[in-house]
Amino acid sequence: MRVSQMFMPTLREVPAEAEIPSHQLMLRAGLMRKLASGIYSFLPLGYRTFRKIEQIIREEMNRAGAQELIMSALLPAEAYQASGRWEVFGPEMFRLKDRHSRDFCLGPTHEEIFTEIVRNEIRSYRALPLTLYQIQTKYRDERRPRFGVMRSREFVMKDAYSFDRDEAGLDISYRKMYEAYCRTFDRCGLNYMVVEADSGAMGGSGSQEFMVKSSVGESVIAHCEACGYTANEEKAECVPEAYCPEGNNCGSELPLEKVATPDVKTIEELVGFFNCSSKEFAKTLIYKADDRVVAVMVRGDRDVNETKLQNYLGCVELEMADEETVERATGAIVGFAGPIGLNAELNIELIVDPEVTLMKNFIVGANETGYHYKNVNYERDFKASVIKDMRNIVEGDKCPKCGGSIKLTRGIEVGHIFKLGTKYSKALNCVYLDEQGKEVPMVMGCYGIGVNRTMAAIIEQNYDENGIIWPMTVAPYHVIIVPVNTTDSVQMETAEKMYNDLCSAGIEVLIDDRDERPGVKFKDADLIGIPIRITVGRKAGEGIVEYKLRKYKDIKELKIDEAVNEAIGEVKSALKNQP
Ligand code: ATP
Ligand code: MG
Q: Domains in the chain, please, with CATH?
């Protein structure tokens, strides 16, 4: 391809709206453009890489025995109503009506639709196991679309669904997908971890996420170096820590005392007022869960994990209660909530983190403006509706498996594999007849990879101050040939000959035949991240060109044929993993 003819609108400036490197670089390198919040168009260079990622996924899915098909993105409501997810998706689902007022959605994920087609077509145990997949556009009206295609409202997902006779079959199908995912992300050049993920809300017996290590990742991963335990923040079980401050009588319970604390509301203010550590307080947070009001208690230095809370409550919408609701629940203005004397009429469920039950003589809000209680003790002074791990894990926490020390890192979730069990097959009556002719619900798994997010994640792990450094496997082109002076006929002839030789060898080549200063061409070549650059300059007359890999600084002078052969060798060895 000739750069002079390419639609490749690169930008010198960093676009103000882009906060993270991949987003900035995808705009600057002319890979994509924004259409609306969370909605993007891919331009030619970007679309080439996008399709290469799709193709790697496709090859690995096929290798694992999954079969490709394609479904519509426009889906009738009925199947989602039957599974209950018409409600569960809440405002994240794009909904619309047709001219007859029938409800439709733009599919956020297709479990129901695959379950229906298999239910309608498959009767016998002989047709199982079966794994189907598609690479298809999904729609989610995300609360906070951000970071470009990392979290967008329209994106392409590879979604696969497995159907088995029993749990043992599911284990095998799941394992095959696990291995296909490892091969896929290896081929994409990613450094990733596989973490235990929560499967609570979707029901099911196990789930793992593929996380690309990155400081811009939105997921927090808890990892224990001692035993290898790895889980995401939502799943990571917190081991309660018993804390006994010096001078606090941790053995015996002191009498409950109400203390006037005018204008002291935040934990920081309380720490100052009582002159003690935030570990000696328990905070009570009031939430609205759909139309219920609930209270959650964690130690003063901890944060509530809202996913754990939402999974436990099984609600669609969860948010911190507004001022008015807090006042109704506690009888006090915001800042004085506590477990003792919550409004009984509201039937508030009090969810207590286990750590709170280990505390002695601690401080809580008194549900009265301007007052706190001190010397509070669990059980004597209040009781939980339920005691359940509700906090975020932190660095240095004990590992729930071995007691070692937990470390936290950030990751980008690029893929998710999930043992669904019979949740959807039961809801939608997806059954088969076993050898005895008895109807049995199929045992399902589902497996997703975000193609756009994977592309952004590859950039997050492969860039420098000059631009993207594509791994060969997903680079839009393998080689860029840069003639320094396009009016020099020797240079141009040499460049054209190399271009033809490389193209005939099956290498994907760009030739920058633009009448631009060399500096401009080098900048663009670096920005768009082509793995191999061959510069044809003054020494072309002597049959010598410059050979440079994007990922290294050094430049070699090679004879023309040597450069061609070296490039072919480099590309072939990088792509040798192909089936
Ligand atoms: P997240 O927690 O990041 O919202 P999710 O748990 O909702 O992700 P899944 O429903 O498991 O994601 O979807 C499978 C894959 O689809 C994810 O692993 C991710 O790669 C991709 N994905 C999900 N939501 C988005 C989005 N808004 N934009 C781009 N990719 C997405
Ligand atoms: Mg999501």
A: 14-236+408-460 (3.30.930.10), 257-387 (3.90.960.10), 477-574 (3.40.50.800)
